[in-house]
Amino acid sequence: MVFMPIVEKYRSKVQEVVLGATRAQGGTRDFTVTVGGEAALPFLHYEGQIPHRPLIGMEIWDTAPADWPACFAPYFADSFRDPAVWAQRCVSGYGADLVVLHLKSADPDLLDTSPEHCAAVVSKVLNAVGCPLVVLGCGKPEKDNLVLPAVAEAAAGENLLLGLAEQNNYKSLTAAAIVYKHTLIAQSPIDINICKQLNILITEMNLPAGRIVIDPTTAALGYGLEYGYSIMERVRIGALQGDAMLSMPMIGNIGAEVWRTREATAPAEENPGWGEQHDRGILWEATTAAALLQAGLDIVVLRHPEAVRLIRQNITELMGGRGV
Amino acid sequence: MGLTGLEIYKLLPKTNTGDCGFPTCLAFAMAVAAGKINQEKCPHLSPEARETLEAAAAPPMRLVRIGPEQTPVLVGNETELFRHDKRFNNQCAIAVEVADTEDMPAFLQDFSALTFERVGQRYSVDLAALRCTSGDAGRFREAAVLLRNSAGKPLVLISEDVSIMAAALPVLVGDRPLLCAATPQNYRDMTELAQKNGCPLVVRAKSLTELSDLTEKIVRLGHRELLLDSGSRETAAVLADLTQLRRAAVRKRYQPFAYPAMAFASATEPLAEIVQSIVFLSKYASLIVLKARQPAQVLPLLTWRANLYSDPQKPIQVEPKVVAVGAVSPASPVYVTTNFSLTFFIVESEVANSKIPAYILPVNTEGTSVLTSWAAGKLTGAAIYKALQENGLESRVNHKTLVLPGYVAVLSGSTQEATGWKVLVGPREASGIAKFARENFR
Ligand code: B12
Ligand code: SF4
B175 Cβ partners below 8 Å, 6+ apart? Predict the structure, then answer.
């Protein structure tokens, strides 16, 4: 019997979102990148167009991290103190598509640096690399409401990917993204209704849907990853079935989740049965990412250069060797 | 059930004899569609109707047993495409491959280390897969016996050469290894061999159409303990094939594909093999054969398997009862946590690590994590008070100090108020507990 492939018919596709802006477009990037646009479930090329491969962002901080495990030292020890150097290392050394700058120093419990300081850091990193930039606040809403608008203004026209907008705190960031021409990360706590609701609220403020990237929230492998995986699958199915408020590409902050787990960081002596930390840590990050790619993740944010290498290879294979 | 009540009704005699115990054929059809009664209860079914109804009632994917009758590895019987719809049934089996030309004792040593304890669960690889690369039947048989005697897991035997396979089987009576594989070239003899020895069999082809064809031929020979291998080895192609096989089985009830599917990791580097296997595990393999065999490499794969096959509706919980870790005394510290199994076992292992005996009090948060339960209003001062009371902590310890998880430091005030206990805020991550304990409870 000739087997006829079962091809699902979808009503819609994922929104395309452009990150960065070149000089001609009002920014200073050497190039822009486009994410999203899939008309099929992840990597099922026979079912619909998958015009853009998922992107790999590498996370950097604006202050030397005290709690990153020792396995990062060989790659970054000499660049931790300077985000510009760190960013260059990620791009030219390890092939990051995007730099994800986390403005940790602004945290009132850390260095409590000023919005002006943060804006200056962002400009410095923009000068150091030519790729589009993702900028995350310190995670404390009150402070981020001061920091992120200042960053947005200083980098006006660059089309940064700025985050995070949340259900109870999206207005000032959305306003700044509209005025200064940036794209927004909308984060919801593994809840598809909140995800949708937030996108409605943001688009009602008149930021176009094409300028939103969804962060449905994830956890590390072994720490609730399956919840993040299932939410992403549902968001992606919703998008393909025509729900415009679930149709944005998705970003996952994987490194930050993974590298606080014991499985990624504990030396072999502490848990001899778990084997060497070297491969275990890299794989904890890479497997978390690989699983979420199967759920529809479009932007993978990682820390470890070896995990980046493995995931780049995985994406290349899944795109059928094309597009990388 | 694939058929609706009306579709079933059309297949019935429509004579309303009532012999099925229902007043009308329509009522009976509705009951069959709802899964309340078996179609066999109608004695007047035509042979064609019986066949159609049986096919529709059969599970979309067969359950296949690999290994000895008493302790088989079960694969298949899946009914879903997405875990959020309903829990997946039988965990994808993981087989670690070794060639018969390799150093067997070294393999066995590695293989025996691939069992893990994590968060109160035991993870383990399931099968040892022996590949004949020597081309030598004697050598293959010898290696198979060694594995059978020492690996402690059922076997997968990999060779398309029927005579090599036939030479190994007499020494493996009752072991029911998975024979891999029947192909369009060897399928008559390989199927006969599998049937004679009661072994499950891999059907391998070069395309889905060829696979469909071959499976039908083998089923016609009377063998149904089958696994499907589409022959693809490139990541994207395997993903495409596994997806088609699962959809054909559960959406279309396509009979030639109503069997569990398998995949081979093909990357040359162990770490890349694991990443590739994550793709196959996530998307529909019921068995994966890989060569990576270091604990640090296999643990992440087994962890994702445990996560993926967990129940999406109901988190795994522990009883909300106080647990004593180590040789506790009335002076021992009290750590408050939640009854989400993952959270509890992480905390328990860290408290054990600290070597300072202590009580752990898992508050009933309906199996949710610390921050989730806090955000949902389930971890509160009042809930902690209730847990202290119900577990009689006042009479177990001679102090009134409890340790809160660092992530819910904001609960300190309300907890102190509600319980009358003094609150110490612990570290955020459980991995900080040992240091915290040393500093506070020495
Ligand atoms: C998986 C998950 C869920 C799952 C639930 C899983 C479960 N069984 O709990 C689902 C999808 C159902 C869910 C729902 C919600 N969630 Co939720 N969820 C998560 C997620 C991704 C992981 C949580 C997890 O499993 N962690 C692993 C466990 C082991 O962590 P843990 O319990 O905290 O334990 C650690 C530490 O606390 C420490 N520890 C534990 N006990 C103790 C004790 C002591 C003494 C010490 C010292 C340390 C310690 O040890 C552990 C390891 O270090 C997190 C985000 C994230 N990445 O962490 C959000 C998160 C916790 N959820 C959040 C929210 C808001 C919700 C909802 C309220 C959203 C909504 N719908 O409104 C709902 C609540 C649903 C309800 N009514 O119950 C927020 C909380 C925000 C906040 N900071 O307050 C988070 C942080 C996401 C976010 N960034 O917004 N969630
Ligand atoms: S026994 Fe068969 S024919 Fe008679 S009523 Fe029931 S379904 Fe109809």
Answer: B67, B68, B148, B154, B155
pLDDT tens-digit readout, B60-91: 999 999 999 999 999 999 999 999 999 999 99
List pLDDT tens digits, range B21-57. Answer: 999 999 999 998 887 888 889 999 998 888 888 877 7
Model-level pTM? 0.93
Around Cβ A151, how many Cβ atoms within 10 Å? 29
Write out the residue range of the structural domain in which residue A138 sits.
Answer: 54-319
Determine, for residues A283 and B244 on separate chains, whether the beta-carbon distance falls below 8 Å: no
B29 touches B53 (CB < 8 A): no
Mean pLDDT of B102-107: 97
Q: What is the CATH number of the domain that holds A241?
A: 3.20.20.20
The mean of the pLDDT values for chain B is: 95
Is A199 within the bounds of a domain? yes
Residue A196 covered by a domain: yes
C-alpha distances out from residue A260 to A292, B238, B302, Å: 18, 33, 20
Contact B369, B342 (CB under 8 A): yes
Asked if B251 has any chain A CB less than 8 Å from its own CB, the reply is: yes
Q: How many domains does chain A divide into?
A: 1
ipTM of the prediction: 0.95
A263 in Cβ contact with B342 (< 8 Å) = no
Q: How many CB atoms lie within 10 A of CB B311?
A: 12
- What CATH number labels B5-57? 1.10.15.40
Ligand with minimal distance to B408 CA: 1
Instruction: Please count the residues of chain A.
Output: 324
Cα B427 to Cα A224, A292, B423, B435, B437, distances in angstroms: 20, 29, 13, 9, 10
Which candidate from B279, B429, B431 shows the least CB-CB separation from A290? B279
Q: Superfamily for B63-308?
A: Dihydropteroate synthase-like (3.20.20.20)
Return the closest-CA partner of residue B285 out of B246, B234, B235: B246
Asked if A91 and A61 count as a contact pair (C-beta separation under 8 A), the reply is no
Cα A41–Cα A47–Cα A52 angle in degrees, nearest 5: 60
Contacts of A297 in chain B (CB under 8 A): none
- Give the whole-angstrom CA distance, residue B280 versus residue B115: 21
- Does the domain spanning B323-441 belong to CATH 3.40.50.11600? yes
Q: Please tell me if the domain spanning B5-57 has the same topology as the one spanning B63-308.
A: no
